[in-house]
Write a structure and sequence with these properties.
Elements (H helix, E strand, L loop, with lengths): L5 H4 L7 E3 L4 H11 L3 E6 L2 E7 H9 L10 H4 L1 E2 L10 H11 L3 E6 L2 E7 L5 H16 L1
Parallel strand pairs: 1-2
Antiparallel strand pairs: 2-3, 3-4, 5-6
């Protein structure tokens, strides 16, 4: 079994970050241009939240907020769970699975260094998580 660490999964990323004062419209445009489904929201250099396509649907459009007037700090997932770069990749996948989210920021010494997506994982890691869940269900 391959045992990758987080840097094996995230390397040479061009992260999409926006300030917490950016509008949802600005975030949506950037996400579309970059073909990504999340924005890392920062206050200066510190990660303060994550804004995703799901947030856009559920916290903006579905409740009738205007994307031009709504700022990210009002609709982001604040204080997101993170992982350090020295952790095993499978641990990141476990965190995402347990939390029910698809993106996990990678932070080292309070500095944002990357973001993991469920799509970054290989089938072998996904199979290991499925097996773990099955074993827990049987206990």
């Amino acid at each position: 079994m391959i045992r990758r660490v987080v840097p094996d999964v995230v390397s040479n990323q061009n992260l999409l970050t926006l300030p917490k004062t950016a509008t949802v419209e600005q975030a949506a445009v950037c996400m579309a241009e970059r073909h990504v489904r999340s924005v890392l929201v920062v206050d200066e250099d510190r990660l303060v939240g994550v804004f995703t396509g799901t947030d856009l649907i559920e916290r903006v459009i579905a409740v009738g907020k205007g994307p031009q007037a709504t700022v990210l700090s009002d609709v982001m997932s604040a204080s997101p769970e993170t992982i350090a770069p020295d952790r095993p990749a499978i641990e990141a996948l476990r965190i995402m699975q347990a939390g029910g989210f698809r993106h996990l920021p990678v932070v080292h010494k309070n500095k944002l260094v990357g973001v993991l997506s469920r799509r970054d994982f290989i089938r072998e890691e996904e199979d290991e998580i499925d097996l773990e869940e099955k074993l827990w269900e049987e206990m």
